[in-house]
């Protein structure tokens, strides 16, 4: 039996964002706390269903449930994936703008543009340049809450709150997280939230070749489709890093980029560079501006740390008091159904007529029935082992 463990400390993580996040976890302590539970669960699953599960590092409350019957073999979570040969022809390379592939510095961030350089390719990260096809804000009075980088073991608390308060949100998920927490993704979809893509390994896309961008998106799409039965069209480039080359690759792959208009900068909580009170004030500012602002908004938050989830929950009543909480699809003048490739031809919604009641297609439902059965058996076996 092999117990796979994604040791984040030993993994090459070129993005500063992930460095900041993962260095705050004391993995050795977490391992001490959870290795026993994981071990018991692993043995139990092995005994009961004869499968090798994945143990989880850095998980506070999550019980490993990785007996999802994957049909495909996926790249290691958070590693830069290779393109599948059959995906290369999806993008006509010679019709893609020849913007240079941006270079990263030693700290993993993009080297700044040369002094006096101009924004030839509508680069958002440096120049906040947007194209009309980018979804980046919302109609006046409307606000879409979005959460990036999950699913994670911390997410469930947020999912519960959203469900109890009947709020729908958009989740930009990372492929490497989806294959570790497929049951969390399925729950999100079943709860009526919008599922969108946030790449496989969270790279700066303008620093990647066309082929690398294809691989990031297609692997993530494949994993998501395996779990929920549909393929998202909405995607968010990590760090908002997009230019016209990346836009064209995304377009040819059938994806629509979503940026944001309001950033909580909750990711700075991990390093202590920002505190909860400051974020609360930022959110109160957005709410206070609702009546005078010419537009609504799309906010950026993350559901991958305990504090991040806490502040996300605290922000919701504030925003709800000032705006109609709506979905990213509406901000982009799309129907809720049309955000999946399989239902792409469904008509646009008029503002404020969101009906977030997607029914999952049968694809994937069967797999989950199987998974639920396995999980039940695992739970029973665990109890038996503990009490004998
Ligand atoms: C929310 O939507 C309703 C109905 O569509 C509208 O009357 C109201 O003005 C909107 N709220 C805000 C804060 O704009
Ligand atoms: C375009 O395709 C060529 C040949 O496959 C490849 O070498 C090149 O890297 C591609 N361009 C980009 C920007 O990815
Ligand atoms: C609110 O609006 C004011 C004036 O338009 C602007 O200066 C301020 O940045 C806005 N605050 C937020 C949090 O958006
Ligand atoms: C949605 O429609 C509004 C009004 O026609 C327009 O201003 C806005 O740019 C559109 N948004 C997108 C992303 O197409
Ligand atoms: Zn992200």
TrEMBL record:
| Alphabetized UniProt keyword annotations | Hydrolase, Membrane, Metal-binding, Transmembrane, Transmembrane helix
Write out the biased-composition intervals (Low complexity): 347-361
- Which terms does the record give in the GO molecular function aspect? chitin deacetylase activity; metal ion binding
InterPro entries assigned to the protein according to its UniProt record, in alphabetical order: Glyco_hydro/deAcase_b/a-brl (IPR011330), NODB_dom (IPR002509), Polysacc_deacetylase_ArnD (IPR050248)
Gene Ontology terms: cellular component: membrane
- UniProt record, GO biological process: carbohydrate metabolic process; fungal-type cell wall biogenesis
Question: Where is the stretch described as Disordered?
Answer: 341-361
Q: Which residues are listed as membrane-spanning? A: 21-45
Domain NodB homology per the UniProt entry, residue ranges? 141-328
- Protein name according to UniProt: NodB homology domain-containing protein
Taxonomic source organism: Absidia repens
């Amino acid at each position: 039996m092999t117990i796979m463990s994604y040791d984040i400390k030993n993994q090459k993580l070129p993005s500063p964002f992930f460095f900041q996040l993962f260095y705050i976890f004391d993995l050795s302590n977490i391992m001490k706390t959870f290795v026993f539970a994981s071990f018991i669960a692993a043995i139990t699953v092995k005994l009961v269903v004869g499968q090798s599960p994945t143990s989880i590092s850095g998980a506070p409350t999550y019980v490993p449930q990785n007996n999802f019957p994957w049909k495909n073999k996926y790249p290691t979570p958070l590693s830069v994936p290779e393109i599948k040969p059959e995906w290369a022809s999806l993008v006509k390379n010679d019709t893609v703008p020849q913007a240079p592939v941006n270079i990263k510095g030693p700290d993993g961030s993009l080297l700044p543009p040369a002094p006096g350089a101009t924004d030839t390719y509508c680069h958002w990260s440096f120049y906040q340049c947007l194209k009309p096809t980018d979804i980046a804000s919302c109609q006046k009075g409307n606000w879409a809450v979005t959460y990036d980088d999950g699913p994670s073991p911390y997410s469930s608390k947020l999912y519960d709150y959203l469900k109890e308060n009947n709020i729908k949100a958009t989740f930009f998920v990372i492929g490497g997280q989806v294959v570790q927490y497929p049951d969390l993704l399925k729950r999100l979809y079943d709860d009526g939230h919008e599922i969108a893509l946030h790449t496989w390994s969270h790279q700066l896309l303008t620093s990647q070749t066309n082929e690398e961008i294809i691989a990031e998106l297609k692997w993530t799409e494949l994993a998501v489709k395996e779990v929920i039965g549909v393929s998202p069209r909405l995607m968010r480039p990590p760090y908002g890093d997009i230019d016209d080359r990346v836009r064209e690759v995304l377009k040819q792959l059938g994806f629509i980029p979503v940026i944001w208009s309001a950033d909580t900068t909750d990711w700075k909580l991990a390093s202590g560079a920002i505190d909860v009170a400051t974020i609360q004030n930022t959110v109160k500012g957005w709410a206070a501006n609702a009546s005078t602002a010419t537009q609504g908004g799309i906010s950026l938050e993350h559901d991958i740390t305990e504090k991040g989830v806490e502040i996300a929950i605290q922000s919701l009543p504030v925003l709800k008091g000032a705006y109609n909480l709506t979905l990213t699809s509406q901000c982009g003048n799309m129907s809720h159904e049309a955000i999946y490739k399989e239902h792409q031809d469904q008509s646009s919604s008029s503002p404020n007529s969101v009906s977030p009641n997607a029914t999952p297609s049968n694809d994937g439902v069967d797999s989950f029935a199987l998974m639920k059965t396995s999980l039940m058996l695992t739970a029973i076996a665990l109890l038996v082992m503990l009490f004998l």
